[in-house]
Amino acid sequence: MERKLWYAKEAGTWEEALPLGNGRMGAMVFGGVFRDRFQINEDTLWTGCPGKCTTEHSMEELADIRRLLKERKYDEAHRALSETMADVNSQMYVPYGSIFIDMIQEKTKCEITDYRRELDLESGIARTAFLYNGERIEKEAFVSLADDVLVVHIKCQKGKQFHIYQAVTLENSVRESGGAIETQGRCPTDRNNVYTDEESVRFCSLMKALPGDCGQLAPGGNSVMASGVSEITILFSLKTSFNGYDKMPVSQGREYVNACRTALEAASAYGYEALKQRHTEAYGKYYNRVSLWIDGEDYSALPTDERIRNAGAGTVDNGLVSLLFDYGRYLTICASQPGTQPMNLQGIWNERPIPPWASNYTMNINTQMNYWPVETCDLPECHMPLMVMLKELAEKGNHYGLRGWASWHNSDLWRFNYEATKNPIWGFWQMGGFWTARHIWEHYLHTRDQAFLREYYPVLTGAADFLEDWMVEDEEGHLTTSPSTSPENEFIWNGSRCSVCEGSAMDLSIIYDLLDKTVKAGQILGEDTKHYLELLGRIRPVTTGEDGRILEWGCALEEREPGHRHISHLYGFFPSDIWADAGMDEAVRKTLQGRLDNGGGGTGWSNAWIANVHARLRNPEGVMHHIRHMFAASIYPNMMDAHPPFQIDGNFGILSAICEALMQSHTGEIQLLPALPEEWKSGEVRGFVTRGGEKISFRWKDHKAERIH
To answer: Is 42 exposed, middle or buried (0-12, 13-18, 19+ CB in 10 A)?
Structure first.
């Protein structure tokens, strides 16, 4: 069965366009007939520069707040904590702009028939084809994993005229250079999208058209006119001055103009077919490692947007589930490669100069969810950008004068590690980096790479050292956090909306998990872990209330929003494994049901998180319900996740849920088909990786699995 997204009309909106990428550069392809658009991003085009925030805090600032919390004066503690916050924000991820290709109409009247645009997940190539007054015109496009350029190829039966030009959203200047259009410019100097004399990231792009055996090119200004061409290849290269999170992007920036020219010249030396072959081979090295087939009626003759609507209305389309699975793997390969930046809220695809939530790294679920499925799907290299970011955050330390490091709710290209805004509900949560540090352990479990574990062990111990300095003793002698929050959620106290507490379930679970993995890693490496083991034994346990639900804020408090989108207090169950043998299943069920009974799980990533919890609970109908919900309410026509607006995390979260339904290994044992939906009667998996580092393949029929080789 072909693994293609396809459509019978050109994209009318960005959410209908199809994504391309090579980890560093991304493009959204619209597939227009007379005007085609390729919207461009590059993963280091961010506003600002290092050192935009220099606020330092002291632990003395927290003394009164901690006293208020012990006295259960939560409303006063909330106000007092707000006053200490620095009112700062991360920088923004900004788009480069767009390339347009206009086909000049030859007649006043024309007929367009047999239109089709598609994204071939097996090759990583987008294609558009149609008949123009009976003449076939074909376009192919990809961002080359091998040659680091955007490649667009157009083939006609007769000579055509094309106008190829750019619209750049950033401050820029344009000139012709050696037959190419060269654009140089800079990013805004702060997140307000303004330009000052401060430093910011610089960039250079080159766009060049290469005709086939006939035709004429006339480059000039910001465009190229191509006349009489029956075949043309457009190459686009883009490089920036970014030289590291701690380097000023101009005075300490890397050379980028010659690098851009070199990349374009190297790609120009190949013919189109060679460029395509080099890309598909480099892409296939990742994509072909894993496959999933689920038996069912074949609806591939229908356009993908129609299939999504039908599945949302109740049609059982197992092929669409398999397509969603492969699409998640495709997006990972395209958005996270060794040496690139980690995937942000939108992966690498963002059209807006001022994007939602700055398209930053939101580290209270979204950044981590982006990487949940990478190891099971045998993409460990794609995990490395996140690991590098962790090491860089550890290098930045913390702004409380404590040992070790911490990263809060948000981060960015410059590894912003401050509490954001003046509201604790959004910003005062110093566990984001510690949650992310769990990925170090996941990478080790799946790869069994001890050299990697030794390299990253200081990141774990640095986090543990910060936590030891940060935590306080409660009345029973347990260690807990104060002040604490449960991300983005509030409770009611004395008629006021509050978010500040002592020892939220989320904080305590992450701390226990972090210390547990630090001890285990140290034991593997032969390190002395006695001290961390003692700390682990003193962490306050997560508790349940009279109704059996987990106490989100550490004690019974009135929920302001019982159906809140975050299920932070279930962290210990998923994605963590610390409750695997703790008899917490019933408490998790009751806690989750309480959220769902009050309307929770509506947003894309929240829906995906809940699907994963259902898989761990061995509830196949719960898994399938939330996959159906994604098709009904949390997915755009191009199959990208709808928060709404677009956030990419839900794509990876639902991919993770499909994996968890088919295979789990978090308990130390391999469990096949632990949460198999009833409608997945038979199928086959090839290439999953377990937490023991074993690659396994299996097929199933009537809920019985058989290992295959």
So the answer is: buried
Return the pLDDT at 109.
82
Instruction: Provide the residue count of the chain.
Output: 709
Q: Give per-residue pLDDT as tens, 591-631.
A: 999 999 999 988 999 999 999 999 999 999 999 999 999 99
By C-alpha distance, which of 317, 84, 52, 332 is closest to 188?
52
Give the DSSP letter string of 447-476.
H--HHHHHHHHHHHHHHHHHHHHH-EE-TT
- 121, 326 in Cβ contact below 8 A? yes
Q: Closest Cα partner for 559 from 644, 474, 488?
A: 488
Spell out the SS3 assignment of 246-288. CCCCCCCCCCCHHHHHHHHHHHHCCCHHHHHHHHHHHHHHHHC
Residue 219: its pLDDT value, please?
85
251 CB neighbour count, 10 Å cutoff? 10
Per-residue model confidence as pLDDT tens digits over 92-103: 999 999 999 999
The C-alpha angle 44, 651, 376, rounded to 5 degrees, equals 95
Q: Which of 350, 342, 354 is nearest to 41 (CA)?
A: 350
- Does residue 675 register a pLDDT over 90? yes
Give the list of residues 6+ apart from residue 182 with CB closer than 8 angstroms, or none.
174, 175, 176, 204, 205, 206
Query: Quick one: which H or E segment has residue 623?
Result: helix 620-633
Query: Is there a contact between 674 and 615 (Cβ–Cβ < 8 Å)?
Result: yes
**206 in Cβ contact with 239 (< 8 Å):** no
What does the alpha-carbon distance between residue 90 and residue 417 come to, in Å, rounded to a whole number? 9
215 half-sphere exposure, CB direction, 13 A CA radius: 26
- Evaluate if residue 440 carries a pLDDT over 80: yes
For residue 101, the model assigns a pLDDT of 97
Residue 629, CA distances (Å) to 309, 311, 580, 610, 611 in order? 11, 9, 27, 11, 10
pTM above threshold 0.90 = yes
Distance CA 397, CA 446 (A): 28
Does 702 have pLDDT greater than 90? yes
Phi, psi of 138 (to 5 degrees): -125, 140
Alpha carbon 379 to its chain centroid, in Å, reads 14
C-alpha 478: how far from its chain's center? Answer: 36
Rounded to the nearest 10 degrees, what angle do helices 318-335 and 304-312 cross at?
120
In whole angstroms, give the CA distance from residue 309 to residue 683: 24
**Interatomic CA distance for residues 348 and 561, integer angstroms:** 32
Distances (CA, A) of 465 to 403, 405, 408: 6, 8, 16
One-letter amino acid of 569:
H
Is-contact 645 635, C-beta < 8 A? Answer: no
Q: Give the angle subtended at the CA of 415 by the CAs of 365 and 409, to the nearest 5°.
A: 30
Q: How many CB atoms lie within 10 A of CB 443?
A: 22
Can you give 4-26 as a three-state secondary structure string?
EEEECCCCCCHHHCEEEECCCEE
Best CA proximity match to 408, nearest among 422, 391, 392, 426: 426
Nearest Cα neighbor of 428 from 326, 504, 511 is 504
Query: Residue ranges of the alpha helices (H) in 530-578?
Result: 530-537
Tens digits of per-residue pLDDT, 485-520? 999 999 999 999 999 999 999 999 999 999 999 999
DSSP letters of 391-427? HHHHHH--SSS-SS----SEE-TT---S-BSS-HHHH
Could you tell me which of 535, 505, 503, 540 has the C-alpha nearest to residue 517? 535
Residue 233, both tokens: 């290849």
